[in-house]
Amino acid sequence: MVLDPWTAMGLAGNIVQFVDFGCKLISETRTIYKSKAGASERTRNLETITADLEQLCDGLAISVSRGTTMVDENLRRIAFECQEVAKELRTVLLTLHIDGKETVWSSFIVAVQEIWTKDRVTSLASRLDALQGQLNTHILSTLL
Known about the structure:
Radius of gyration: 22 Å
Structural class: mainly alpha
Number of helices: 5
Order of helices and strands: HHHHH
């Protein structure tokens, strides 16, 4: 069977994408399986950062709740939004851990979930980063 050049090129591209996806999946499965925490390093780092920022926002929301200025209101609003995004991110990250016994299969399942939720995690992490920048700006403006 002879394929026209465009069909052959499309087929080759699809094969390359499939092999690339398979390699990423196998690599991620291996990383998760070998980790002691049952999650990838990226997931653990994001969990640490999220928990820390959420705790800081909790303290910030409490400390500015006494004030009534516009700056305090903006800080409180941003801190609250930061807490909400952090909770949502933490909920997603909790699904990226091995539940129960660590096996190659459970590591594979977590790796697939990590690939499927990558866009959502990236989106939430960038929103959290932007909110953190806003918090920094408002806190610095109160110091001036």
